[in-house]
Amino acid sequence: MVQDTLFENTEVAFKLKSDSELERAYFLFKMISHQPLVRIGTAATNFALKAHLPVEGLIRATVFDHFCGGVNEEDCLSVIDKMYTAGVCSVLDYSVEGKAIEDQFDSAKAKILKLVDFCDEKEAMPIVVFKPTGLGRLYLFQKKGEGKAFTDIEQQEWDRIVERYDAICKLAKARDVEVLIDGEESWMQEAADDLAEDMMKLYNTDKPIVYNTLQTYRHDRLAFLKASHERAKSGGYTLGYKIVRGAYMEKERVRAEEKGYVSPICKDKMTTDQNFNDCLLYILDHLSAISIFIGTHNEESSFLALELMDKLGIDKKDNRVWFGQLYGMSDHISFNLAAEGYNVAKYLPFGPVKDVMPYLIRRAEENTSVAGQTGRELTLLKAERKRRKGKK
Q1: Is 125 exposed, middle or buried (0-12, 13-18, 19+ CB in 10 A)?
Q2: Which 3 state secondary structure label does DSSP give 284?
Q3: pLDDT, tens digit, for every residue of 167-218?
Q4: CA–CA distance, 232 with 205 (Å, rounded to integer)
Q5: Could you give phi then psi for residue 93, rounded to 5 degrees?
Q6: What integer pLDDT is reported at residue 112 of this predicted model?
Q7: How many CA atoms lie within 13 A of 118 on its CB side?
Q8: Residue 34's Cα: distance from chain center in Å?
Q9: Which end is more exposed in the chain, N or C (fewer Cβ atoms within 10 Å of the end residue's Cβ)?
């Protein structure tokens, strides 16, 4: 069994980083470790972009190139190929957010269809991803989930959302490319879950192509997973799930308090961790029926997955089990797992610098709010700097 020191190997974790890239990473995480600096930097960056000040070059050379693959898919190719030399695959994530009109949703669909074809040509890219609200308005998902009747125009709009989903999943099935559908806010998620399940019924008949997302900071997700499993058994299709802890915790709690309903979020981090691990165990225990993409930067959950795979006799290269982390974060998990022979993919965001800024700001804020995340990154980067200096 893999030793608990696996994730301490900084030589493997950072072997693709040049000395200058290592120094840039250290500088960025040092900055991110100071919450006031993140707030000031975020405000200054937003102002500079809105005022059309010439800052895109600076952003590109620092935070953008650390957390993103490029401005378009072709721009990402060098990063994709470089990571694949270390056995790490890429999930290209078109990280342009906040769009709300039909032309933009059609453009997003076209972009994802292009990515599916792009993935089909490259062994290093077996998976594609999209957000539900990249293909349609959040309001419609919310209204649908609440069981409210659509107007005729809204129904036509919803039908177009379904068509976009279907076009992507159908092409993915034809190209044998797996599709991850991201999770979003709880008040729109019920309709998104139903639509993802409809796609699984259509396209997960031979093997999982479509993967929905379980945000396990929601206390109801294990029960939801078990109910989904029962429906899949009755319907004769398999399930695919990406499991994550979640990305909208503060927004969820604030809305629940404002509107006077019980928050869907677990009471504390310990409960969330347990919920994540319970979902992980359930899926690995039912791997013949449910495939998994383990999206985590948590070392304990990663070790648990390795132990369970070993105990259950699951081969490291079983395509039904993938590990995933975000590009620019947790390289000590990604590259060390890949070196041991596990299936690993990095989420590789891309898009025009200005359009990707909301994503980058979330990454910076997330690192300041997740206890220990930035400190752990800094400790490992320091260790690698010291190791390299010792060799010179």
Answers
A1: buried
A2: helix
A3: 999 999 999 999 999 999 999 999 999 999 999 999 999 999 999 999 999 9
A4: 10
A5: -120, 105
A6: 95
A7: 21
A8: 25
A9: C
Q: Are 190 and 145 in contact (CB under 8 A)?
A: yes
pTM here? 0.93
Segments of the chain scoring below 70 in pLDDT:
1-3, 97-99, 363-371, 392
| Amino acid identity for residue 292 in this structure | I
Which domains, and CATH codes, for the chain?
Answer: 1-68+356-392 (no CATH), 69-350 (3.20.20.220)
Residue 368 is predicted with a pLDDT of 60
Identify the pLDDT of residue 23.
95
Listed residue (210, 66, 193) closest to 142, CA to CA: 193
Q: Is 374 within 8 Å of 368 (Cβ atoms)?
A: yes
Return all residues near 126 (Cβ < 8 A) that are at least 6 apart: 89, 119, 177, 178, 345
Exposure class string for 198-236: b at 16+ Cβ within 10 A, else e? ebbebbbeeebbbbbbbbbbbbebbebbeebbeebeeee
Residue tagged 């396990």 (tokens): 216
DSSP state of 269: H
Torsion of the alpha carbons at 275, 278, 279 and 282, rounded to the nearest 10? -160
The per-residue pLDDT for 50 is 79
Q: Contact 157/140 with Cβ under 8 angstroms?
A: yes
Q: What is the pLDDT of residue 57?
A: 85
Rounded Cα gap, residues 361 and 38, in angstroms: 8
Q: How far apart are CA 284 and CA 300, in angstroms?
A: 16
Measured CA to CA, the distance from residue 236 to residue 210 in angstroms comes to: 15
Q: At what angle do helices 138-145 and 152-175 cross, to 10 degrees?
A: 100
